[in-house]
Description:
Layout: E1 2-6, H1 12-21, E2 26-30, H2 35-40, E3 45-48, E4 74-77, H3 79-87, E5 91-107, E6 120-133, E7 139-143, E8 151-154, E9 159-162, H4 174-185, H5 194-209, E10 213-218, H6 222-235, E11 239-245, H7 253-265, E12 269-273, H8 275-282, H9 288-314, E13 321-325, H10 330-335, E14 361-363, H11 371-380, H12 385-388, H13 408-427, E15 439-441, E16 447-451, E17 454-463, E18 466-468, E19 474-476, H14 481-494, E20 498-503
Bound molecules: xanthosine-5'-monophosphate.
Xanthosine-5'-monophosphate binds next to loops.
Enzyme class: ligase
Pfam family, one: NAD_synthase
Function: Catalyzes the synthesis of GMP from XMP.
Amino acid sequence: PVLVVDFGAQYAQLIARRVREAHVYSELVPHSMPVDEILAKDPKAIILSGGPASVFEPGAPGIDPKIFSAGIPVLGICYGFQVMAHELGGVVDRAALGEYGKTPASIDHAEGVLKDSPAEQSTWMSHGVAVEQAPEGFEVLAHTQGAPVAAMQDVARGLYGVQWHPEVRHTPKGQELIETFLHDCAGIEAHWDASSIIEDQVAKIKAQIGNHQVICGLSGGVDSAVAAALVHKAVGDQLTCVFVDHGLLRKGEVEQVRKDFVQATGIRLVAVDASADFLDALAGVSEPERKRKIIGERFIRTFERAARDIVSKAGEQGEEVRFLVQGTLYPDVVESGGGDGAANIKSHHNVGGLPEDLKFELVEPLRTLFKDEVRAIGTELGLPDEIVWRQPFPGPGLGIRIIGAITQERLDLLREADSIAREELSKAGLDRDIWQCPVVLLADVHSVGVQGDERTYGSPIVLRPVSSEDAMTADWSRVPYDVLSAISTRITNECRGINRVALDVTSKPPATIEWE
Ligand code: XMP
């Protein structure tokens, strides 16, 4: 793989994504990983990410300079570039001029990693520290007003660095630079694509599961469907899918899964109605992390019960189900604090929400993938568009879209409002433009309204349409006013108890996509 060493950057995952967009497999590793361990992973190239520290501050994360003499091409970005310069004897100091945002860079030598660059490039910068002097052996390729050395390289040693962020779209020639580094400087071929991922994962799944029985928790979303299809390809009939109706589903979801999934794949499906159980466990709970943990735990208990049923049905030859497949994605892992050094933003039900006494061994073939990669695999595996292009819906379902305690009445109300919003957005042809549109019930908030000359005192519904590339960051979608108006009118007319519809116009960050 290509390893991205994470110095605590907001953008480290983004670097990994961009490498994969260049059809090269990449993984993140924490900067605290010993260099011997990094090298033992046999990386074809290494990228050092940005980070919030300054190299000359006490306690600033560094890296064992051995990494620069291992004969592996290294690209340093922003802080990673400064670390490279610092460790190899260059001069790094507070910049006379900090540069934040769009910054023109003068390219003095359009060579090597900057091959074919125009004489000036628009770049995205975020630095208050600059490399004043490159280490010995390096050629300075570019400068900006605030960075005397904005890009440098030592071709003989395979070392490259840039002060700016090539991974963000605001650097128009950024992807080109990453691809030049990977393909030209490091000589890595572009092989990573949907079919190579499938081949790779199928082999891994076979090795992990052997000839044992395995179940897969299906949510109706693309992730678990693709995970199931991959496992089915690997171990065939050893797989049983379990679809849990936890009472927090949207309208028509159970039927949809039967229709889209079972018909398309022919995989054995067991549907379990566990709604009473989930709602009991959630009664009176309004704290989001507790909801998530309870839901995560209930899911596992339900899978355990389903597994016992499968065994008892199989009778004599019945062998215990050892493995549980989950459609966990890379961003779920990172945001649940599972990425090394990452903060726990929220416990995704299938990562941070798992009980400690989990008896299953997990099979998570998508754990290192992003959503767009999962969709590409789904298509390659022959899943229908209805599944592959379904908008994401979180495992905890409507449970984390009722702000306040969950009751049957509130669920029914939200389910209705959600169904109206979905219907109108689809009718307007916006399904693919919008990443997803959570519909949120502010159950404990009441406001005064007037309907049919009567005073009402009801709760608001919030619409949260967002556009995103991978759910790590998002912007609010500019849904046409007419569509919003149609949704608002229908919800207030058809959902008794809702007298206001509000639109959430916050990006992520600072908000998250879901309200809880
Ligand atoms: P946030 O709210 O963290 O959401 O910006 C990012 C994406 O993840 C989905 N999400 C979840 N999916 N289990 C899931 O399966 C969860 O616990 C969970 N929490 C959030 C959310 O819908 C969005 O697509």
